[in-house]
Every structure is written in structure tokens, then in C-alpha cells.
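Researcher: I'm preparing a figure for a lab meeting and need a structural model of a single chain. I don't have an experimental structure, so a prediction will have to do for now. The sequence is pasted below. Please return the structure as C-alpha cells so I can convert it later.
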Amino acid sequence: MLSRIALRSAAARQSATTALVARGSASDVAGVRDEKNFPRPVRGEPGKVRLGFVPEEWFQFFHSKTGVTGPYTFGVGLATYLFSKEIYVLEHEYYTGLSIFLMVYYATTKFGPQIAAWLDKEVDAVESNWNEGRVQNIKDLEQAIEEEKTAQWRAQGQELLIQAKKENVLLQLEAAYRERMMNAYTEVKRRLDYQLEKSNVERRLAQKAMVDWVVSNVTKAITPDQEKQAIDRCIADLSALAAKH
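Model: Understood. Here is the structure written out cell by cell.
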């Protein structure tokens, strides 16, 4: 009876664990896992037992009322009552079951640790297989974060390059502006020099024309007698100057 209750309890725990794993897997696939309401399932460890099949809770239940020997006394007394009243008859099936129990107990103690280690390895392999996708996803996300940081660093470099190009364009505009200002200054100076030279030429031509006109009119106004008198006066002046020296 006790073993049947223990088996039912283990089966209920196994079904609950399977349901949690299935629900967790479905949530992972859908991509909408709620860690608060649906936490990630963790492999549960079996409860403690005594004598290989009696749960520890039975001994704790009797310990608070009958002490340490209570569970054992209850078990021995119950078995004695069942045997003495022939409620449980020791037929050949009993001895067959006892033989099977001894063989199972021997196999459990002899091969149990090796089988348990193998099963633990299988469980660890299944768990690692389940976690492999999540770990790989985390690695991919970390790599994406690093690539994003690298892209941001490159974008900052592009901003510096764009700023340098803007400054280079401003320098080119300043050089073109100064060149055009120099060209405008040169053209204005050339035209002003042309106007000055033109004014000078016009003034010289006017002076020459005026002088020629005055000389021509003066020459025309001198008569032969005046010219002869002027020549005589000049000769007299020269003779006077020669006499002084």
C-alpha cells in the first residue's frame, strides 16, 4: 500500500514536471515567455526515502507523535497483525515476491549507481540540448551588440570625416572668394589705369594743340619788319654780351 502511494506520488510529480517542460517549450517557441507567470522549469530532485521506498514524510509524521521508533513499531505491529489474523496469508506467491524483491534489491544496490550515473548523463545531455539553442541565441545577441557598437564607432568616425570635408569645402570657398576678389581688384585697377592714361594722353594732346595754335597765330601775327627788328635786336644783345666778356 505504501509503495503504491509512493509510486502514485512519483507519477504525479513526473506528470507535473512534463507539463511544465511542455508549457515552457511551447512558450519558448512562440517567443512570448513570461518569466514571472511562467518561470523556466528546473529539473526536480526526488524526495528522500527510507528503506528504499518509504517516503521521509511518513517518518516525520510519526516522529512528532511517537518519536523515532514510532514508524518502525507501527510497521512491525501492522505486519504482525496482518500475519497473525491471516489477513495476509503467506502463500507461495509471497515467497516468489520475496525472492523477486531480494533480486531487485541486489540488482539495485549492485547496478543502481552505474544506471543512475548513466541516466544522469542522459538527463544532462537532454538538458544541454534544450539549453544549446538558448545559449547560441545569447551568443548571437552578444555578437550583434558588439557589431552594433562597432557600427556606432564607425558612424562617429564618419561624422568626423564629414566635419573635415565641410571644413575643406569652406576653405575651398574661401580660396575661391579671395581669388575672385583679387580678380575684381585687378580688373578695376586696370580700368582705372586705362582711364588715367587716357586722361593724360588727352591732356598732352590738348597742350600740344594749344601750343601749336599759339605758335602758329603768333608766327602769323609777326610782320617782316618786326622780324627784322627782332633779329637786329638780338644781334645787338649778343654783341653787348660779347663785349662784356
